[in-house]
Structures are given as C-alpha cells and as structure tokens.
Write a structure and sequence with these properties.
- The chain contains ten helices and four strands.
- By secondary structure, it is of the alpha/beta class.
- It has a four-stranded mixed β-sheet, sandwiched between helices.
- It is globular, with a radius of gyration of 19 Å.
- The two termini are 34 Å apart.
C-alpha cells in the first residue's frame, strides 16, 4: 500500500507542478518494511520470536497479566512475545526509532502512518495511546484534523479513534516515540497514526482465504488486491496536504483548543 502511493507520487512529480512545489515545503519519507525476517518466514514476530509492536519499554495500564494479546514475557514460542525483561529493544525496533527520530523529530510538524494488516471488517485509523484509555496530550489537534477530513471526504471508509478503544497493549513503539518526542523542548508537534486495514473485508468475500497464511491478512484475488492498493491514496494525499496547512487544524487558540478537547472527550472518551 505504501509503495503504491510512492509510485503514484513519483509519477505526479514528473508532470504536476503542485506536487513539485509540495517538496519545496515538506519532506516525504518512507520505510517499506521493518520486519524482513518475519515477512520471509510469514509470521508476525521477527527472527528472535519477538513481536516488534510489543517490544518498546512501555507498560500498559490495567492490562490483565494473562492477556497474551496485549504482550507477554512467557515464551517466544507464543505470539505477541515482548522479549526478555530489561533487554534492549530488538534491532528492527531500534532502527525504526532511530529513523523516526532522525527524519521526524527535527520537524516543526510531522505526521507518521504505520500501515498494518489487521483483523476486523473496517479500516481503522488509530492514534495514541495503545497503553492506556486515558486521552493523550494532542487530542484537540487530532479532533480538528478529523473534522477537516470528515468534511473533505464525507464518504470515507475509516473509523478514526484511539487505539485503546479496541485493545490495550504493552510495548507499543508509537506510544514510546510519542512520549519521547513530547520530552523535547520547543513547540513541535508529532502525531503518529496507525492504519489498521480490516482483513475480514476480504475473508467475507472469499472464506477460503482463512486456509492461507497470507490470506488471513491480505486480499488474494487480483482485483481485490488492486482495490486495496488504490483505496488509501486519498488518505495519504490528505495528510500530506494537512502538514502544509497547519493553520487549519494544528495552530489553535487556547479557547479553540479547550472546545475541541471537550468535543473529543465526549466523542471518544464518554465512558
């Protein structure tokens, strides 16, 4: 999905003046894969059996100790293994963190999108936190961005929500990176999102996919793969535009920020 957008973007650069001007005002960086060994072996964990999205030094709130899905340290033979206690992060996780810090932390405004295949029958666009059901610091800006997206694309397919609305996990890399960023001095904004693409959409259309290792997470039929590769391009395009127009959602007065925070709390955290 990310490479499909990159190919479109590169073609636009060949002839579209607006796209060419975009790169005078912003940067666009892409890391196509962080778990090459796991991809080769067709499994979620890396070569050491560690789930990279449970590997950061982040402890979740109110997570039952027997909740394997939220991350555990029982055995690398079980899925969602965090790694050994007090061990350094896995090499792949460290590479991602160093990449984000180098490419995004120096920016006045940065948005990241972690592209995931996932369960569920809807495409979800998640923001922090995964470690707690409490709201994160920049909930006002995210709600303002959501409002603009809803108005610009009123028929979009995404459920925009905090990741904790679905489940809580230990060791989320983006929770870790976000918390590291807010420690920095200056008035910079970094918003990490996760595009969780609902795989059950395709399983409903072709139940035989559940008998394939990749079919559980990916569309198998060629026309459905094509549909997946094109369905998110408008989202990436919107986010790239949003980064260049922060006055519309990211630069808020104190009063606007308070009103947006109240609306966001009512909308996402009413319980």
């Amino acid at each position: 999905v990310s490479l499909a957008y990159l190919r479109t973007f590169i073609q636009l650069l060949q002839w579209d003046k607006n796209t060419q001007d975009i790169l005078n005002r912003s940067r666009f960086v892409l890391l196509p894969i962080i778990n090459p060994v796991g991809m080769f072996l067709k499994r979620r964990s890396n070569g050491s059996g560690v789930d990279l999205m449970r590997n950061a030094p982040v402890i979740a709130d109110k997570l039952h100790p027997l909740s394997l899905y939220g991350g555990h340290r029982i055995s690398s033979r079980l899925p969602w293994y965090q790694g050994s206690l007090n061990a350094p992060m896995e090499t792949e996780a460290q590479v991602l963190c160093e990449f984000v810090k180098e490419e995004l932390f120096s920016s006045q405004l940065a948005i990241s999108v972690d592209v995931h295949s996932g369960y569920g029958a809807r495409d979800r666009f998640w923001f922090p936190y995964a470690k707690t059901r409490n709201p994160f610091k920049h909930i006002s800006e995210v709600f303002a961005l959501k409002n603009i997206f809803d108005k610009t694309y009123p028929n979009h397919i995404y459920r925009i929500e905090p990741q904790s609305k679905q489940y809580i996990t230990h060791g989320d890399l983006w929770d870790f990176l976000y918390d590291e960023h807010i420690k920095l001095e200056g008035n910079r904004l970094f918003l990490p999102f996760c595009l969780e693409m609902g795989s059950w959409i395709w399983i409903k259309k072709n139940f035989r996919q559940v008998f394939s290792v990749l079919g559980v997470f990916n569309p198998v039929a060629h026309h459905r793969l094509q549909r997946t590769l094109r369905r998110h391009i408008h989202l990436f395009d919107f986010l790239h535009r949003a980064v260049q127009s922060p006055q519309s959602w990211a630069i808020l007065s104190t009063q606007d920020k308070m009103l947006l925070k109240k609306s966001a709390l009512d909308f996402w955290y009413d319980d």
